[in-house]
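Reading a protein record of the kind used here takes only a little practice. These numbers are not coordinates but entries in a learned vocabulary of local backbone shapes. Here is one such record, which you should read through line by line.
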Amino acid sequence: WVYQRLANALRTAVEDCRNVRAEPVFSFVGSLSAAGLAEEIRRLGSEADALAVVSVDHPAVSAAIAECTARGLPVYALLSPLRAPDIAGYVGIDGFAAGRTAGWAMARIAPSRGEIGILLGSHRYLGQEANERGFRSAMLDYQPGRVIRDTIVYLDDETVAYGAAQELLDRSSGLVGIYHSGGGVGGVARALEES
């Protein structure tokens, strides 16, 4: 849903640019498989003038980006940064700052006693990983001693996110807040509604 809305917004932005002649092409890969993402980067890279990718950070993805760059094709990271040395740039927010902002808000909203749970889509998305680090950092600054549960990683899958949220809600009687970073928002929301 988020990526479809982003694609629609980018398509509209290109259409509204009078001085730009471009035809945006969007590809949605339904898996976090680094091999599958790398294959799609290579495939699109053979047809495009530039790429913007939302991808997990993995050596196979970095290798595909390096191949594109060697042919003169710039590849940009979109929404989540990549460590690939040949990446042309990053378009997105500062995940650490976003996580700190969420931690600051949680410290003010949640009751002062009780546990905080963290649900994370995947550490392979560096943006999500930075969000978690920022959140934990802010909680240490604003509420040192607050109990923060171990992070539950659910692989950005809505069904798995639902189960992970249910697990967190069931096993922690003193839970007063959940920090969620990643996809699968619908699954987390459904678990919260049911609880």
Observations:
- Strands lie at 51-53, 75-78, 89-91, 115-120, 147-148, 152-153, 175-181.
- Residues 57 and 124 are 5 Å apart (CA to CA).
